[in-house]
Design a protein that fits this description.
- There is one protein chain.
- With 294 residues, the protein is mostly helical.
- The chain contains 13 helices and two strands; from the N terminus they run αααααααααβαβααα.
- The chain has a two-stranded antiparallel sheet.
- It starts with 7 loop residues before the first helix and ends with a helix.
Amino acid sequence: LCLALIGVTVISILASFVVDEPVDKAELGKLLFFDPILSKDKTISCASCHKPEYAFADTSAVSKGVGGMVGTRNTPSAMNLSLQRIFFWDGRAKSLEDQALAPIENPAEMNLPISEALLRLRQNDSYRNYFRKIFNSEPNRENLSEALAAFERTLETSESPFDQWKFSDDSFAVDDAVKRGFTVFNGKGKCVQCHFGADFTTNEFRNIGLFNGRDLNDSGRIVLSGDLHELGKFKVPALRNIAITGPYMHNGMLKTLKEVIDFYNEPDKIIPNSINRDSILAKPLGLTQREKDD
């Protein structure tokens, strides 16, 4: 199943990132996404952590920002965001436009106040002209976020083997192991209780047992909500392109999909002292080796 979720978009989007002169806000957002002008020391861009060849995710548990600063959470994929309603692991952004600006200002990421980013863009002849042409305005907070969000909305996976099998009735698009795996996914594995819909996410928050208040002390959603029931909860991530977006979980602690499945199968074996873990994972799943492989 996981391999089947890799879409041709990931491959085709690598073909060209060169934009001679953007003609719409999505192309302008694309130009900005790959330009280090939006970081304090002009050394990193959005694409430094959202790598196109890895479905716009990162290969590190946590990414490095300007000056070698290290974040605390794994970089999620910037693909397939059009249908999502909450953003970041703790859901602190309610729109893609809000999400787009946060990494620029984050001290551990690009570390540049938006006011300074806008000044740079206004002082750059090319960008000033691009914004005037597309938005009939100089760069401002609203049109900068709109351009970046517009580009991210173009990064949609489609025509994957899974889509061809399930939605185009092509029974040969995937092999028998994938079909058996999907049965486990929807049944014994309980995956579908959190991962369903077009992008395999419920757009909600869950505590799967990665908080123990000791070595695993990122308390997640509760910091924003103040609700004790949300202690250790994080956003359920989408599963599109999951085979190439590792490492996994909000802290990047699991390196492979095998480790992920082993964890879900017996969470107590991996983290025996978790706090507030979801009742879905109250008991071991009891998956056989073949079911794990499938």
